[in-house]
User: Fold these one by one.
Assistant:
Number 1:
Amino acid sequence: MKKLFMMFLIALLIGCAASRKEAYPPQEYPAGDVSRGNTGDSSASKSSSAGLSGKKLQEQTKRILSYEGYIHLLVPNKNKEEIIENIAEYVRNQKGFIFSQNKTSLTFKIPSKYFRKTFSYIKTKGEVDEENIRIIDITDSYYDTKIRLENSENLQKRLIELLKKAQNVSETVEVEKELSRVTQDIETLKAAMRRYQSQIDYSSISVYFRDSSTPGPLGWFFYGVYIGVKWLFIWE
């Protein structure tokens, strides 16, 4: 009976291990720098979907994507704090939350459905010096983790049933040991799923603020000298 019990336990574990899939790292779509005046996510979408058509394009729309954006904004120094607070208030009204806020930068998470809207709103608050959208494809990692979690939960149920059938202390100890390991795996996988879900539900944006003050007469003089030198010696 003991040998039969152990063989059943081993077969159960091997079956579960065989059903596990290889973990896939998230794939990043290189959105690159976005030219001034254009929306970053629009350019990124064109870049990532270039060359796709028909069925392949349809499949891509089902991918699970996470968005990260940043903007360098030129604003008058005297209005900088007010503009930062206006953006922070806008984020809170959109059910977002602030990670960090100081006199030169603002980093926050916003519900993904408001990402484009928020990105466009920020650009109205000053002169956009630089902007970028980073798109991360977490589809494979998400579904791989989800399948592993389902398999582990099924194994946990089987081990609980097997524990009820244990005939002696030795069998009980063996099953409890494996049950403890599987339970730890489940907690780890659940934590990973929560992180992925957070990436799906929320997008992050970082905004950096710089002074856009107009230079005085002396400043314009040196700026003109700089332009002249650049024109003479730097050829594009």
Note: The radius of gyration is 27 Å.
Number 2:
Amino acid sequence: MKKNVTFMAWNEPNVDKNSKSFVKRFRDVVLYFLKIFKKKGVGGNIFDKKSFNYFGSSFYIIVFCIIVIGYIIAGIYIVKPAEKAVVTRFGKYQRILEQGPHWIPLFLEKKRIINTEKLERNSHGASMLTKDENIVNVEIEVQYRINNAEKRLFNIAEPDKVLREASDSALRQVIGNSDLDFIVTSGKEQISNAIAQQLQTTLDSYDAGVYIAAVALREARVPTSVKSAFDDVIKAREEKEQLKHQAEAFANRVVPEANGKAAQMLEEANAYKQETILLAEGDVIRFQLILDEYKKAPDITKKRLYLEMMEYVLSKVSKILIDSDSNNNLIYLPVDKLMGTKSGINKVIENQVYKERYNKKESQGNTLPKSTDEVRNRRQ
């Protein structure tokens, strides 16, 4: 009669009512499989129950040890320096293990190894509306890494999808608050920083355990339909900047020159001012001295001033003045001296005029010096 073998799980409700011990139940399982092999022709006396009981206990121990050793070896794993292992028991978080060798009981606990130092990349692009109601095609590359393995596994169901949607939201928010010219020209770096900050804020609100290392605005261009018009705008802006730089260079060159000329004119004006003041002060002193002399001898002072003025005036002309009332028909002119210098001409004229006046005064009984040299000697 064929014996029926019943397999019962260890955690079934009526397992305690089973009269067989664990070893007996294990032996029955082994005998069941051996009988299957015997029916297929493997055969041998060792497969009957009597022979099997001969070495049963030792065989069970060996098999059990092999299973235990295999179980232990299968639960050993190594965590690399840049990794962390998240251990769960029946799906519930237990602990995080750092680098080094570790062991977990199989079928009871599981591990998830996550690289927390590796820099991941995620690219995203779309057409968006700017603040000034223009359309721009933008593409960004997000560089990130996991800074909290527990949050990364348990707080977000689909991490890649969440990161992509958060990147799209941050990109649209920043682009929507910026003008087209600023986006495609000088504002790429500022826009990248603003997107990274906004994206990090969003992920932190999700408690995602992700750190945004950098955001690069790889491309920002206008649609093809308006590219030619936009190129004209860019060209005009560049010409504006060029003219601005030229004007600044001209101002930097002209302004110092003008300042130098102004300083020079101020110095000359100050010098002229001082010179004029000194001359005026000298004239005042000279006038005061003449006034003192005039009070002492008015006639002589008048005569002297008259002669000095005539000397000053006649020294600048090359003509000879002769008194027509003179009875002297023969007048001697030292031509050689007149041709030499103007001072010689002036002196001859002065002496001639003075002689005629001297003769007139002498005939009237008045006495005067015989020449202008004598007048100068008397003054001295």
Note: The CA atoms of residues 129 and 232 lie 21 Å apart.
